[in-house]
Design brief:
globular, alpha/beta, 5 strands, 171 residues, five-stranded parallel beta sheet, 10 helices, single chain
Length: 171
C-alpha cells in the first residue's frame, strides 16, 4: 500500500513548480484538505498560475484526493496555540485524522506543530533529496530541482547547500 501524504498548499505548489509532483503522486497516496484545494487551485486559477491548473488536473484524475476535515475544534485549538493559518492547520488535522504517513509542509509554524506532536514531515527540499537517494531521479535532475527551489522557495542558503551536498554524495 502506498504511503499517505497529506500536503499543505506551499509544498504542493513547490513540488509542481519543480516538476516532482508528477512522480510523487505515482508513488504516494496524496491527499489534501478542502482549504488547500481552495488555496492551491481556486485562488491560483484566479491569478492564472499555471501550476494551479496542473494541480487541478491531478485532482480531476484522482491522483490527488480532496478530503473534508472532521474536527473543526482541533483546527481552532492548533491555530490558537501555534498561530498557524487555516489551510496548514487543516492539513495537520487531516494528517492526524487519516493517520497518514507524512505531512508535506514548508511552513515554519506547521513544522513547529510537527515537532511538538511528533508528526513526520517532509519539505519540498527533502522530497527532492529523498527521490535522489532512492534513485527515482538523477543527481542532475535533483540539482536542477534544488536550484528551482532556491528561486521559488523561502529556503535559507545553508539548507540549499546542505541539500546539494546530499545529492552530490549520491553520484
Amino acid at each position: 500500500m502506498d504511503k499517505i501524504v497529506v500536503s499543505d498548499a506551499s509544498t504542493l505548489i513547490l513540488l509542481q513548480k519543480i516538476d516532482l509532483l508528477d512522480m510523487l503522486v505515482k508513488n504516494f497516496d496524496f491527499i489534501i484538505p478542502e482549504e488547500i484545494y481552495k488555496e492551491a487551485v481556486l485562488k491560483g486559477k484566479d491569478k492564472k498560475f499555471s501550476d494551479s491548473y496542473q494541480i487541478e488536473d491531478k485532482t480531476n484524475k484522482n491522483l490527488i484526493r480532496i478530503k473534508k476535515v472532521k474536527d473543526r475544534n482541533k483546527i481552532n485549538k492548533i491555530m490558537n496555540e501555534f498561530g498557524t493559518a487555516e489551510g496548514e492547520t487543516e492539513a495537520i488535522v487531516l494528517f492526524l485524522e487519516l493517520k497518514a504517513d507524512i505531512l508535506a509542509t514548508d511552513d515554519h509554524k506547521s513544522i513547529n506543530v510537527c515537532k511538538a506532536h511528533k508528526i513526520p514531515f517532509m519539505t519540498a527540499l527533502t522530497f527532492v533529496v529523498d527521490a535522489c537517494i532512492k534513485k527515482s531521479i538523477t543527481t542532475n535532475e535533483a540539482k536542477k530541482m534544488i536550484e528551482k527551489l532556491r528561486l521559488y522557495g523561502r529556503y535559507k542558503d545553508e539548507l540549499i547547500y546542505k541539500a546539494l551536498s546530499y545529492v552530490e554524495a549520491e553520484k
